[in-house]
Specification:
The complex is a heterodimer of chains A (458) and B (475). Chain A has 458 residues and is of the alpha+beta class. Helix content of chain A is 22%, strand content 38%. Chain B is of the alpha+beta class and 475 residues long. Chain B is built from nine helices and 24 strands. Classes of the chains: A alpha+beta (458), B alpha+beta (475).
Amino acid sequence: MRTLGGHSLAAPAPGAASTQESYFNELASFVERALAAGESYTMGFEGEATDFVRMNRGKVRQPGHVEQQYLDLRLIRGARHASHTLSLTGDHATDTHAIEAALSGLRDALPELSDDPHLLLPDVVRSSRDVRSDAMPSAEAMIDALLSLASGHDLVGMLAVGPVHRGFADSRGQRNWHETTTFNLQWSIYHRADKAVRSSYAGFAWSERELATRIEHAISQLALVSRPAKALPPGKYRAYLPPAAMQEIADMLSWDGFSGRALATRQSPLAKMREDARLAPGVSISEDIADGVAPAFQSDGFTRPGKIPLIVNGALAGSLVSPRTAREFDLATNGANGSESPVALSMGAGELPSGDALAALDTGLAIGNLWYLNFSDRPACRMTGMTRFATFHVENGQIVAPVNVLRFDDTIYRMLGDNLEALTRERELLLEANTYGARVLSSSTLPGALLSELNFTL
Amino acid sequence: MQDIRLPAFDIDADFWSLRFVCETGESFCVRKNVAQPLAAFTDRGVMATVYADGGYGYAATADTSDDGLRAVLGRAAHWARASAHYALDDSGALPRPAPRGEYESPFLRSKLPSRREWYELLQAESQAAGCDPRIVDWEALVDVRHATHRLFTSEGGDVVQRFRFLFPSIGVTAHDDGVTQQRSLNGYRGICQQGGIEILARFGFDGAGRRIAEEALELIAAPNCPSERMDVLLAPDQMVLQIHESIGHPLELDRILGDERNFAGTSFVTKEMFGTYRYGSELLNITFDPTRPEELASYAFDDEGTRAEKTWLIREGVLQRPLGGAISQVRAGLPGVANSRADGWNRPPIDRMANLNLEPGDATFDELVASIEDGVMLETNSSWSIDDSRNKFQFGCERARMIENGKLRGVVKNPNYRGISAEFWRSLARVGNADTIRVLGTPYCGKGEPSQTIRVGHASPACVFRNVDVFGGEA
């Protein structure tokens, strides 16, 4: 294997404040000193130093490095408040000058605003520090390993690796810091046209042996994908959805499904569950911060409990309530951000060993991934989407052929209700690969699902 | 940005560029008659791109000091060299642009309302929208953005472009007796243009709160859209989505080259199709048009420095050229357009839509309706889904009106339709004239690894399609 050299990603010593953490605390102290009488502040911090390496056809297409830090500064006077998010350079003089200008602008704006009846701030100081930064190889070494292992194959995908930081500070002296170094490698190996196997490897501790295992598995699946494809007509088919496919369905439920505000205003796709609609008794869903990668604090400084039950035994049991929603609808906040979407969604396991999934499917579709889901009738929680990547027709528990892409259109009350035969005993922790604007710290932990039928329309 | 002076630096590279972006903005929102807290932002930074030893690398930082610029160029050069032996393309063969010029949004310096005036304007629409107890949620908002882009290249390039964008929006949710319906002014952030306050008047923003609320109330009492094959008249605020998903994305050259196959997907279009493939009926004319001043993605140069000009991508139904920037053009050996774009200083340029428009035909709106014996008019996109080759699609709309014997009839709810791109555009039967055009778009076109959301403009007339698979919501 050819080595590219390069530097390893160093981890800070245990218990020691990283450069970013110290800098954040310095800026918080600066803001504290810059306040006038009667003013208070909250301050959020999001930063990362990321190597992004994009690949296509087993080669490197676009490699790069991005360093970014953003400060979200909110000035509060009485019940009036306004915020300014600004990029930071890392230079103290430059950044404090920018913060002064932002504070001045916010100070000018407050008289033009109304009192906010929905402002809610924490009344208990809960500081925290959570640092997990394991040393890992350089991005160059990771790419070297991946492309060597997949040599000769049409591999396309991306590596994102490096530290991610989140912080919170406020006038009451609360300080929260969350720091983690992760890698997230997402790739597909193509056989032809749209026939491919998608895989991923993400986490905190890099193992080349584990990467090799995953590449070998993908290549073995490629042999199945290379068989002549079968074009199935629309209709109802038995289906097995592995955790990667279930993640797409979970993402749809997370789109206002568990939002306290959306439920209160009937916009949630799960609003009917406030009445008589139910999922199968085996379905339980919760927000499990304790088992995920998201920080245990949110942007107003509220802390998040380790576990929030959302659906218990098929019935709606809770919601994610932001401070604003709590004030508006007279609810108790549970540390949700403004979007009220899960950041550590966890679905309970079933009893089907995942190794027996194809045998239990018998004849039907083993779906590798789902893609581009959206609601075809939001109040009914009816959703549509496509099959993608390695999706196979299975007969008598054996893979027969890859299947050309199919569109499904069905309600959650059938998919995870009447038509849910089993959930797998094993669950998978899936780290969010989203990199829109920044690397996202969220995850989902999901089982696979066996459905007695899924409605395909195109 | 106007006063940027590059420091002296010594870099061993075949080519370099520095792309500075500064964007500021304020968001004003009134929800359920409560003014939401003001949110402002300032985002400044620079991306360096370097070609060296046949490799390509980029690096980005918010530190635009002299030392910061030297460091970011060094990082980009490091990646170029470190990846050179794995490079997909020989950077020695890539273009080395030397663009010079400027661009400004229309009415860039015209006065905008004060913060207080914005809130008063939005409060008036909110008050009007919350007109009935069955309206259970509603909001009126506007985002104002200013951006300056400055591009320097090692070949002497120096481009300054200044933009102002406005994103006004009104949305309501109505609920009664177990039925919930949502209605908006031309879709979620569908109104998005460059310019000033005149944008709001262009879309009848003043008074829209009441109008949108009344349409939502009408929808909760309406029957479900019938399910059958019929002719459809797509309003411009649905046409823009149809163009975006089933023409724009499949024509992106980086998809055709395979870059997006792990994420946003591939394309049913192949390199061999250009010049001969019949994409749609003879009425279909699609242009890449960065010259329409008010449209969201008008500009003079793309983010690699290629000068932008109006170009036909599909003429009289036949595919002409892809949406591919200068680098993709070299990789593919095809002509393209100036569409290499990044959504900020911290993401590299890739092939994107910009302004992608359907050119007008000759039919008045009344003639479009009159051309349908049995069909439906669909308005305002609410749901979008298409396969990763951009072929099998299913789209939903907020509102529809039945058409019988050439006349508009009653409103129906939950309208959806599905089809296949390669067949759908060949069923294009009538194209509205310039009077039916709306200039819309989206600020949220997602794509890329790492991912980016880019601003895209679409101008389209209303259009008629024959024999489409239409269906309603859950019974």
